Amino acid sequence: MKRLQWPSWMPIDPYILLLLGTVGLAALFPARGTGADVASGASTAAIAFLFFLYGARLSTREALEGLKHWRLHGTVLACTFVVFPLLGLAARGLEPVFLTHNLYTGLLFLTLVPSTIQSSIAFTSIARGNVPAAICAGSFSSLAGIVITPLLAAALLGNSGGGFSADSLVKIVLQLLVPFVAGQVLRRWIGGFIARHKRVLGYVDRGSILLVVYTAFSEGMVQGIWHQVSPVRLAGLLVVEAALLAVMLALTWYGAKALRFNREDRIAIQFAGSKKSLASGLPMASVLFGAHASLAVLPLMLFHQMQLMVCAVIAKRRAHDPEAAETATTPVPPVAESRIAVGTGTRSD
Q: How far apart are CA 298 and CA 318, in angstroms?
C-alpha cells in the first residue's frame, strides 16, 4: 500500500503542535499558587537565557559587513516596523465586529514584533534569492526589535495591553536587552561552544519558549479571560490575518520592484519583510502583558503557521520561474527546504 504523505508545499510545523499541546496542558492543569510562582520565575529565567543565546549567536562582523546593502535592509526594516504597524492600526476599524478588544490588541502586537531569521533564509534559498541579504536582514530586524518593539508597544498600545506600563519597559531592558548585550560581549569566548552544540541549544530554545507559553496561558486560565474567545471570533481573526499576510506579500514584492531591486533582492525582501518572529514575539509578550499574554500571543501563533504554509508555496513557485533559471546564482540547499517542510530547524522563529 502506498504511504500517504502530507504535501511538502503545505507544511505543518510540528513545533506548532507542541505549542498547541502546551496550551491544552495549561487549560487542563494551569499552574496555581506556589506552582504559579515557580513557573513564573522559571519563565523569567528562560526568557533571559533565550536572549543571551541570541546575542551570543549573532556575528557582529557579519552584521557590519551586511550594512553595505543598506537600501535592502532599510526596506525590510520599514516593512517590519512601519508598514506592518500602520496596517495594524488600520485594522482597528474591525473592532468589535470581527475582533474583540483583546484579540485586536494581540493583532496589533503581532505587527510590532521583528521579522524571522531561519525561515526567511530557508525560503529565500528555496526561491533562489539573495541568501546573504536575507541572513543580515533577519539579524538586523531581530536586533532592532529588542528596542523598537517595546517602544512601539508603549506608543501604540498604552495601557490597552492589560498590565502594560513603564515597568514593562524596565523589564524589557533587564530581561531582554541586558542578556543580549552580555551574549554579544562574551561571544568571542563562548561562540565556538555554542556553534558546536547548536542542535542541543536549539532544543533549549524551544523548551524555553514552551515554558513561556505554559506560564502565560496558565495565568490566562486563572484570570478567566478565555471565555472572551469564541469560534466565530477565531474565524474572524484568521480572515483578518490572511488579508494582512496577502497585503504584505504583495507590497514587499511589487514595492521592491518599484524601487528597482533585482529579482534575487526582491525575493529576500519579500520573505524577510512579510513575516513575524514567534521566537522573539512570545517572550516579549510574556514580559509586556503578564496575565494577558495568552490572548496577546494567540494571533502571533496563528499568523506564524499561516506564513509558513503560504510562503512555502510561493518559494517553490519562485524557484521554477523562467527568470530564476537565468538569474539564480545561489543553489537550493536540500537541508533548508526540508527544515521548512518538516520543521526540524534549531528553533521555530
A: 30
And the C-alpha cell for 105?
490588541
How far is C-alpha 316 from the chain's CA centre?
Answer: 21
Cα gap 103→228, rounded to integer Å: 9
Instruction: Report the distance separating Cα 289 and Cα 303, nearest Å.
Output: 19
pTM: 0.78
Written as tens digits, the pLDDT of the chain (349 aa) is: 444 444 444 456 677 788 888 888 888 888 888 888 888 888 888 878 877 887 787 776 666 666 678 899 999 999 999 999 999 999 999 988 888 888 899 999 999 999 988 788 888 988 989 888 888 888 888 888 888 998 898 888 865 554 455 666 677 777 777 888 898 889 889 988 888 888 888 788 778 878 888 887 787 777 666 666 778 888 899 999 999 999 999 999 999 999 999 999 999 999 999 999 988 888 888 887 766 777 788 899 889 889 988 998 898 888 887 665 555 444 444 433 333 333 333 445 7
Distance, in Å, from the CA atom of 167 to the CA atom of 288, rounded to the nearest integer, reads: 9
